[in-house]
From TrEMBL:
Source organism superkingdom: Bacteria
Gene that this polypeptide is encoded by: leuA
Any one biological process term the GO annotation gives: L-leucine biosynthetic process
Keyword Transferase recorded: yes
Transmembrane annotation, as ranges: none
Domain Pyruvate carboxyltransferase: 7-270
Protein name: 2-isopropylmalate synthase
Family, as annotated: Belongs to the alpha-IPM synthase/homocitrate synthase family. LeuA type 1 subfamily.
Pfam family, any one: HMGL-like
Positions contributing to Mn(2+) binding: D16, H204, H206, N241
Subunit relationships: Homodimer.
Name of the top EC class for this enzyme: transferase
């Protein structure tokens, strides 16, 4: 394999990305994104369109002042005012580019610009001449190139290169191209433009048909383009642009095919995606390639089993290399025993036999049929339920007294292995008194970690459900209790948790501390 040629990554999140309806960004936001793009190693940052507003001019200026390693670029129409604004905005940047453009398709020239083809060439040439007063790095784009006549493109591109443009960008402005034709289109242009080797060729594809990434890669691989214009999360006008994270990972993962040098720090992709999403308020769809929450999650048993045996059975790249902490095995109705067993191990749930796992797995499948999200607590409680089957502590009754100015008092009766136990105590609140009453005879030594109440039904007659989390000897369990009387529900939940802990009969700690919070 020969030495890879460099692929230039030109990011337009801050310019075309901002053309997404609803994605307006302020100067501080743009600066944060620009710094992240620089950290990631993006070659060119298109920071905005200087002539579009004083705010965008100032944002480009601010970016030009801080970004040192990436080229800072401003877009400009092919007119002198836009070029001057762009030139002034990027002035402070150590590496600066002006990107000027004009439409070249018959439709745009006639209906939008109301210009003859010759006038369009003149406008392009004089814009480039003007731009050279500010920088030597000049990009020229033929807007709507994929719907332009090749013969006209040869003429205007030759003139642009002659005038000093050193990057020639071929946009598929309306996302009309199809990959094999687009690659051929670029190749044909490069073959017919006599001075084509004096410029780097670039592609800028829109995603109206969902083909932006495919078209860009075809332009590179078959057409010989060496710059891709793209944006984080594929943000851009209408359906967006080519997604930076996708092309970068395609070129990296399929280096065997593309054989191109791309020097992006890919571990910054997910942080960049999250940053842009949070600033614009555009959520990332879970199944989005590379940066979607599900991109490295496996939900089905056969895949999970494969990944546990060897990650590359179902992963063509790693979660870590694009900036996720790790891949994920998501437990649900399609999961198998391998993933279930693995999660049980990770949760540190002590299991005595394969049979115990199998029983819990059967319960898990039943639960997963009813519930979409299975949390770690659900897995934990599958095993708790197995303990509950051997329940030996049962609630009988609770008497409780509360009066303003007096400490609440509770009396509890419960059965322990069929033997009636009585306990009484005061507490800082009625719930505290109830728990103290239980502990006055249970003496479990367990620590109360959580107490929460939910109304299961509406209105003042609501059934209350209480959850209590206790820990003892490194184990943690949740106990649940339901009753229209919230204090009885609390007592039931506490006793349920003691059952699961299975520590009562051992009476490990006769010095019961007052753990229950005052409620
Ligand atoms: C394909 C792309 O994504 S191109 C980039 C698109 N981005 C933007 O348009 C965002 C920023 N734009 C703006 O803020 C405004 O449109 C401005 C400041 C540039 C211009 O605003 P206005 O002067 O009010 O013009 P308006 O937007 O209504 O129309 C665009 C004008 O530019 C002309 N024009 C369009 N493209 C070009 C070009 N590449 N070179 C020269 N003139 C152009 C149009 O023919 C039209 O001229 P007309 O008013 O004489 O008919
Ligand atoms: C200005 C050009 C590059 C553009 O955004 C497009 O044609 O889509």
């Amino acid at each position: 394999m020969n030495t890879p040629e460099k692929l230039i990554i030109f990011d337009t999140t801050l310019r075309d990305g901002e053309q997404s309806p609803g994605a307006t960004m302020g100067q501080a936001d743009k600066l944060r994104i620009a710094k992240q793009l620089e950290r990631m190693g993006v070659d060119v940052i298109e920071a905005g369109f200087a002539a579009s507003s004083p705010g965008d001019f100032a944002a480009i200026q601010a970016i030009a002042q801080v970004v040192k390693n990436s080229t800072v670029c401003s877009l400009a129409r092919a007119n002198l005012r836009d070029i001057e604004k762009a030139g002034l905005a990027i002035q402070a940047a150590p590496r600066k580019r002006i990107h000027t453009f004009i439409a070249t398709s018959p439709l745009h020239m006639e209906k939008k610009l109301n210009l003859q083809p010759g006038q369009v060439i003149e406008a392009a040439v004089s814009a480039i001449r003007e731009a050279k007063k500010y920088t030597d790095d000049i990009e020229f784009s033929c807007e709507d190139a994929s719907r332009s006549e090749p013969e006209f493109l040869y003429r205007i591109i030759e003139a642009a290169i002659r005038e000093g443009a050193n990057t020639i960008n071929i946009p598929d402005t309306v996302g009309y191209a199809v990959p094999s034709v687009f690659g051929e289109f670029i190749k044909n242009l490069r073959e017919h433009v006599y001075n084509s080797d004096q410029a780097i060729w670039s592609v800028h594809c829109h995603n109206d048909l969902g083909l932006a990434v495919a078209n860009s890669l075809s332009g590179v691989h078959f057409g010989g383009a060496r710059q891709i214009e793209c944006s984080i999360n594929g943000l851009g006008e209408r359906a967006g642009n080519c997604a930076l994270e996708e092309v970068v990972m395609a070129v990296k993962t399929r280096k065997d095919f593309f054989n191109l040098g791309c020097y992006i720090d890919t571990r910054q992709l997910v942080p960049a995606s999250k940053l842009v999403s949070s600033i614009t308020g555009f959520p990332i769809q879970p199944n989005k390639a590379i940066v979607g929450a599900n991109a490295f999650s496996h939900a089905s048993g056969i895949h999970q089993d494969g990944v546990l045996k060897a990650r590359d059975t179902y992963e063509i790249m790693t979660a870590e290399e694009v900036g996720w902490n790790t891949n994920k095995l998501v437990l649900g109705k399609l999961s198998g025993r391998s993933a279930f067993r693995q999660r049980v191990r990770e949760l540190g749930i002590p299991t005595k036999s394969e049979e115990e796992i199998n029983e819990a797995f059967a319960r898990f499948k039943e639960l997963a049929d009813k519930k979409t999200d299975i949390f770690d607590e659900d897995i934990q409680s599958l095993f708790d339920e197995q303990y509950t089957e051997q329940q030996n502590i049962k609630f009988v009754s609770l008497k409780q007294a509360s009066e303003t100015g007096k400490r609440p008092y509770a009396e509890i009766v419960y059965l322990e292995n069929g033997v009636e136990r009585h306990g009484q105590a005061e507490g800082n609140g009625p719930v505290d008194a109830t728990f103290n009453a239980i502990e006055s005879c249970a003496k479990s030594g367990a620590e109360l970690l959580l107490y929460s109440v939910n109304a299961l039904t509406l209105g003042t007659q609501a059934q209350g459900e209480v959850t209590v989390r206790l820990s003892f000897g490194g184990r943690m369990v949740n106990g649940n209790g339901a009753d229209p009387d919230i204090l009885a529900a609390s007592a039931k939940a506490y006793l349920d948790a003691l059952n699961k802990l299975n520590v009562v009969r051992e009476k490990k700690n006769p010095q019961f501390g007052n753990d229950a919070a005052a409620v």
